[in-house]
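Consider a concrete sample entry:
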Amino acid sequence: MTGGSVLDELSPLVLVPESVLGAGPVEVEIGCGNGHFLCEYAGGRPGTTLIGIDIKKKRCAKAKEKAERRGHRNILIINTSAEKLLDELPAGSIDAFHIYFPDPWPKSRHRKRRFYTMQNLRRMHDLLRGGGRIHFGTDFFDYYIQAKVLTALHHGLTLTEAPAPEAILSSLYGRKFSSLSKSIHVFSAIKAVSANQKREQDEHERNVDDGVEDDEEG
């Protein structure tokens, strides 16, 4: 990503420039809060554009300020809703979604308001590239079970044993719950690679191997 961090107003304008989506790996944190996770995670992902979205403008302002203060020019902060962003992004453009400590809506009558529904899961699946991942973490065991079961029922996603990034513990809630020795429940899922993508990957690997052999013979 060539530009610095950007804070956009919630508007009908294009939220993510095409130049960002075509410049390399792209990962999205849904509900980035004050940017704690993104700023820690960015240190190990210099070649990846990290998009953080949050519905609250003040949180976005703090996240933007934090990213700029730390010199992370690969972070893009957008003040919008998750659903609006999912509607805008093109299919197969995202390498990973990060969803940590989303609003649990703990009362039974409010659970329909939770973000992690089958509808939104299908939308994220369509936006992921083959081999892309979804990382989910919450301190609410009930929400964890619900999200994990929905993911297991989606035929295009496979639950993995790979843990969520350690930087999850650097988020505001991650640090709070860790200090209280409260359990944080996480899982990751991966999108299957299509047959065409698998052939392209195999062809790329063969070309790389042939190039290495030519260099050795020379």
